[in-house]
Amino acid sequence: MTGMRWGRRPPRGRRPTIGAVSSTFSRLPGPVSIARRTRWVGLVVFAVFVAIGVASRAGSDLAGALGGAALALAGAIPLFLVRSRLALAAAALAAAGVVLAGNADSRDLVWFALLVVVAWVILAGGIKLGLVCWMAGVAIFGAEWLWAVRDPGWAPWTAGLTATALAMALVRHQLVLVEALKTAQAGLAERSAAEERNRIAREIHDVIAHSLTVSLLHISAARLAVETDPADAAQALGEAERLARRSLDEVRGTMGLLGRGSGAPGVAPPAPGASQVPELISQLRRAGADVTLVVDGDLATLPSTTGSTLYRITQEALTNATKHAPGAEVQVQVDITGDKVEFSVGSAGPPRQGTGMGLQGMRERALAVGGTCSAGPDGRGWMVHACLPLSGASPAVSK
Known about the structure:
- There is one protein chain.
- The protein is 61% helix and 9% strand.
- It is an alpha+beta fold.
- Among the domains are: 33-151, no CATH class; 288-399, Histidine kinase-like ATPase, C-terminal domain (Heat Shock Protein 90, 2-Layer Sandwich), CATH 3.30.565.
- Helix 3 (62-81) runs antiparallel to helix 4 (87-102).
- The longest helix is centred in the middle third of the chain and has 72 residues, at 154-225.
- The radius of gyration is 39 Å and the shape is rod-shaped.
- The relative contact order is 0.06.
């Protein structure tokens, strides 16, 4: 006992305060949505127990029992059928009617109606209101035992009330979890739909931007050659028309994906792969662009997912290069190693400020397959560099 200091206060951070307890209960979930049919079932169960209590007192004090029943139903009807902030007052009125109908007799089954009231308040009103009702119910049974009739039968009613409150609190917790899961599921579905729309938008952006850029080069060449070389102008216009029709078919196929969710038939267009990169370069060359391609490795051996990503990033980078620096030399270099493929698109033209949507799209495509993509000035002009892993991607499908 030596050195012990009696009456020492505990540290401030460990002392429970009324504010802390109130804050804890304020974080408890509020009312949950309950079907109208369930509300009627609760009211009917309550009325049945009240009717049993009235019937048990038919030979003694029927008038008092009927008065209590009327008071109980007057509080129960708005409690069970109407969502209101006066639920606690309605519950108090219903409990008062049950007390009058019970007439201090622990053998009367009408006390089950009080348990129903407490259970309903916990289920529909929340834990805080339910706790108040449970304390009021315990106080009622305690008052009946202490001041009305010294009957040990009130102890089982108190235990039953407590068990009912705990069981209903668990049921309510499960309902809250179900509603939270439904909300989360709806959010995931909405986010998935938004991601799919963004993916389709990127596909359409890549197709249309490239098509318009190359077609514009052909049309510009045709305009310049229409008087001096009509045959060359006609060839350029024919190439622009062919490219436009091909791009229109790709857009139609991509737009068909939007109808698949609603049951409409839609066929996904074949995704372009790495083996089509030389054809992409040829399109730009035929349009008059100065583009060269250097490949170290076999493009046909790339997995389909990696090849499609390589094609789309290269397509977007070439589109930006010919749009922002027309006439400048552009070099595309692809290096295929054992576990990755690195490629770059470098333009000799001066860098210009764009919207940034194309750069963001290239980064997202590379990130989707576990790769990286960067873009910026390199001293010579503008450089787009990407690195994509070959492991974990789906293998290429031979045709």
